[in-house]
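Suppose you are handed a protein chain with no further information: no name, no annotation, nothing but its sequence. What can you learn? This example shows the usual starting point.
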Amino acid sequence: MDSNASAAKVRLDKWLWAARFYKTRELAQAAIEAGRVKSEGERVKPAHPVRAGHRYTITRDGLSWTIEVTAVTDKRGSATVAQGLYREDEASVAERMRVIELNRAAGHSPFKGRPTKRQRRKIEDFLAEP
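A reasonable first move is to predict its three-dimensional structure. Written in structure tokens, the prediction is:
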């Protein structure tokens, strides 16, 4: 199999990992199986073949991306290379920024769970200042 044939279509979970939407293929598979990744509004399977021109809606951490695939690869590269694999709708960008601003205004903390030792020390230093 030559590289052009393999670049023509790739498994969706591999592509999401290569495009840096998820840190591991396992997380990408779990998200797909949970219905957080949709193609044209329909649920898909992790082995769904991705081709240039396909449109997907990806939901992660309360945020949503509506993207069109521009390039297909199964190799994970740098973040700048990953951004070249897809094009995001302007409406999607605006909606995601609106949700981020609402969360920021509501005072949602970027920290989850118990603070780490380093975070706790920063909190203690902040509270100890006059």
